[in-house]
C-alpha cells in the first residue's frame, strides 16, 4: 500500500474520532464526559491495525493540543491535559495501538470476536489504565478511588466494544482489503 493511501486512512480515522465527539455527551460529576470518541479509538485499532491506528489517534491528540476543539463538548488546547480527562486523552494513541496489536495477533479468530476482544483489551483496559491514572493525579484521589469513579463508563464501553466488533466484521465482509489489521 502506498504512503498516500496510509495518510488518507489515518486522516479519515482522525476525523472519525472527532465526529464521534459531536454525539451528545453526558458529563459526570467528576468532570469526565461519557462520549462516543472511545469507539473511534477502538475502530482505529480494529480496522487500521496497530501502527496506523496509533498514528490516527496521535494525530487527533496533536490537533487537540494545537487548540482545535475536537474533544467532546468542543474542548481543545493544552488546558485539556490538566483536566480530569487528561489521562484518557493521552491514552488514546496507546489504546488505539494496543487494540490494533491485539487484533493483528488474533488472526486465527473470527473478525467479530477478534475485534471485540481487541476493543476490550486496548480500547477499555489500556485506556482505563491511562484515564484512572490521570484522574487520580488531577483530582488528588487514590488509584482505587479513581477506578471506582470510572466504573460508570463500563456499561457504555462494553456496548462500544461490541459495536466495534460488529462494525469491523461488517466492513471486513464488504471490503476485506480495507481492514488493514487483517492484511
From TrEMBL:
<feature type="transmembrane region" description="Helical">
    <location>
        <begin position="85"/>
        <end position="103"/>
    </location>
</feature>
<feature type="transmembrane region" description="Helical">
    <location>
        <begin position="109"/>
        <end position="139"/>
    </location>
</feature>
<dbReference type="GO" id="GO:0005886">
    <property type="term" value="C:plasma membrane"/>
</dbReference>
<keyword id="KW-0472">Membrane</keyword>
<comment type="similarity">
    <text>Belongs to the BioY family.</text>
</comment>
<dbReference type="InterPro" id="IPR003784">
    <property type="entry name" value="BioY"/>
</dbReference>
<feature type="transmembrane region" description="Helical">
    <location>
        <begin position="53"/>
        <end position="73"/>
    </location>
</feature>
<dbReference type="Pfam" id="PF02632">
    <property type="entry name" value="BioY"/>
</dbReference>
<keyword id="KW-0813">Transport</keyword>
<feature type="transmembrane region" description="Helical">
    <location>
        <begin position="146"/>
        <end position="172"/>
    </location>
</feature>
<keyword id="KW-0812">Transmembrane</keyword>
<keyword id="KW-1133">Transmembrane helix</keyword>
<keyword id="KW-1003">Cell membrane</keyword>
<protein>
    <recommendedName>
        <fullName>Biotin transporter</fullName>
    </recommendedName>
</protein>
<dbReference type="GO" id="GO:0015225">
    <property type="term" value="F:biotin transmembrane transporter activity"/>
</dbReference>
Amino acid at each position: 500500500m502506498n504512503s498516500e493511501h496510509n495518510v488518507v486512512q489515518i486522516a479519515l480515522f482522525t476525523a472519525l474520532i472527532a465526529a464521534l465527539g459531536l454525539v451528545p455527551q453526558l458529563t459526570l460529576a467528576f468532570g469526565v464526559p461519557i462520549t462516543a470518541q472511545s469507539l473511534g479509538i477502538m475502530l482505529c485499532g480494529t480496522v487500521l491495525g496497530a501502527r496506523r491506528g496509533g498514528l490516527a489517534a496521535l494525530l487527533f491528540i496533536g490537533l487537540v493540543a494545537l487548540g482545535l476543539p475536537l474533544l467532546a463538548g468542543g474542548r481543545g488546547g493544552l488546558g485539556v491535559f490538566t483536566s480530569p480527562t487528561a489521562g484518557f486523552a493521552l491514552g488514546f494513541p496507546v489504546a488505539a495501538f494496543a487494540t490494533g496489536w491485539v487484533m493483528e495477533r488474533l488472526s486465527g479468530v473470527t473478525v467479530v470476536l477478534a475485534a471485540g476482544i481487541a476493543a476490550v483489551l486496548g480500547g477499555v483496559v489500556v485506556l482505563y489504565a491511562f484515564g484512572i491514572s490521570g484522574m487520580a493525579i488531577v483530582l488528588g484521589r487514590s488509584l482505587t478511588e479513581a477506578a471506582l469513579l470510572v466504573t460508570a463508563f463500563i456499561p457504555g464501553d462494553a456496548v462500544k466494544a461490541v459495536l466495534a466488533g460488529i462494525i469491523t466484521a461488517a466492513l471486513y465482509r464488504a471490503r476485506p482489503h480495507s481492514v488493514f489489521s487483517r492484511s
